[in-house]
């Protein structure tokens, strides 16, 4: 004789939701939390990250997969490259 199937196996197969990505960030210049906002305009061909307090800005060229966190991290990487260049 066979066993009955339990309902538990059906509930365990549901996919997990992806975590939400940040949309506002800490400024690398003035260190104010949640002041950097990213704007992506694919139709115009630019992406901008700007601080609302110190008015620092960073521009880059986006692609279809670019998200606000990508623009912010490009800005941070560019700041690190500039700081390394000044030490030599």
Automatic annotation (TrEMBL):
Question: Which keywords does this Swiss-Prot/TrEMBL entry list?
Answer: Metal-binding, Nucleus, Transcription, Transcription regulation, Zinc, Zinc-finger
Sorted alphabetically, the Gene Ontology cellular component annotations on this record are: transcription elongation factor complex
**Annotated InterPro entries:** Elf1 (IPR007808), T_Elf1_sf (IPR038567)
Q: What is this protein called?
A: Transcription elongation factor 1 homolog
UniProt key word Phosphoprotein? no
- Going by the entry's taxonomy, the superkingdom of the source organism is recorded as Eukaryota
Q: Does the keyword Transmembrane apply?
A: no
Similarity comment: Belongs to the ELOF1 family.
Q: What does this protein do?
A: Transcription elongation factor implicated in the maintenance of proper chromatin structure in actively transcribed regions.
UniProt GO BP: transcription elongation by RNA polymerase II
């Amino acid at each position: 004789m066979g066993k009955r199937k339990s309902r538990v196996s059906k509930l365990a197969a549901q996919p997990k939701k992806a975590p939400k990505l940040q949309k506002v960030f800490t400024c690398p210049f003035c260190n104010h939390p949640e002041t950097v906002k990213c704007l992506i305009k694919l139709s115009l061909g630019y992406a901008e990250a700007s601080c609302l307090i110190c008015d620092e800005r960073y521009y880059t060229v986006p692609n279809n997969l670019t998200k606000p966190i990508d623009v912010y991290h490009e800005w941070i990487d560019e700041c690190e490259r500039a700081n390394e260049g000044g030490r030599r």
